[in-house]
Amino acid sequence: ASTNISGAQYPQILPDNSVLFRIKAPDAKKVQIDLGKKYDMLREEDGSWAVTTDPIIEGFHYYSVLIDGVAVCDPASLTYYGMGRMASGIEIPEKGVDYTLAKDVPHGQIRQIRYYSDITKSWRRAFVYTPAGYDKNVTQSYPVLYLQHGGGEDETGWPNQGKVDMILDKLIAEGKAKPMLVVMDKGYAVDPDAPKNNQQS
After folding, report:
1. Which of helix, strand or coil describes residue 175?
2. DSSP-based three-state secondary structure for 92
3. Residues of the chain with pLDDT under 50
C-alpha cells in the first residue's frame, strides 16, 4: 500500500481491493484488524498473524490492530490523526482517478503557521496552502478558502490524508481553479475558563 512505511511489505492491496495484513506478535493470544469491521487474524508458525479482508471500498480508510483487545497502530503503516486518536491508514486506489497524484505542474507549498489563540488561551497550529509563485509577487492578493477537517480529525487531515496540495496544483494548472490560499485549522476551540456545561467547540 502507498500508505506503508518505507520498505514495509504489508499490508498488501490485492487485485480485488481486499487487503492482506501480516503482523508480528508472538506473545499475543488474539489479534484482529479493525477496518470497517473486525477481522480475526490467524497465527502462523513464526509468531506472525495474517488475514485477508473482504474487498475494501476505494479511498482512504483508518484502521487499527487489536492485540488482545488493545487498539494499536500498525507498525508497518504511516499514522494519521483520525478517529479521535492516532491511527493507521490505508489508501485503496480509485481506478481511473489521478487527482491526488503528483503531476509535472508548478507546485505550491503547505506551510505550518503557529499563532496564539485568545479563545483557547494557548498556541495553536494551522496549515496554509500557498500556490506556485506565491513568494514572487508579494503585492498580489488571493482568495482564501477555509477548509475544515472531518469529525475526529484535526488540522493535519487535509494536508496528510487529503493531499490538498496535489489536488490544487493540478486544478490550478488546468485552469479549473483560481490560485488561492487554503487555511486548514483545528475545528475545535474550547475556552478553558468557560463553565464546563457551556463549552462549545
Report:
1. coil
2. strand
3. none
CA distances from 164 to 35, 38, 91, 178, 201 (A): 24, 30, 15, 14, 24
The three grid cell numbers given for residue 92, joined into one nine-digit string: 485503496
Residue the block writes with cell 480529525: 153
Name residue 113's beta-bridge partners.
Answer: 126
Q: Are 17 and 58 in contact (CB under 8 A)?
A: yes
pLDDT digits (tens, 9 = 90+) for 112-125: 999 999 999 999 99
In contact, 89 and 65? CB cutoff 8 Å: no
Query: How far apart are alpha carbons 85 and 83 in whole angstroms?
Result: 5
Cα-Cα-Cα-Cα torsion 116, 121, 125, 129, nearest 10 degrees, comes to -60
Which one-letter amino acid corresponds to residue 39? Answer: Y
CA dihedral 5, 159, 58, 44 (to 10 degrees): 20
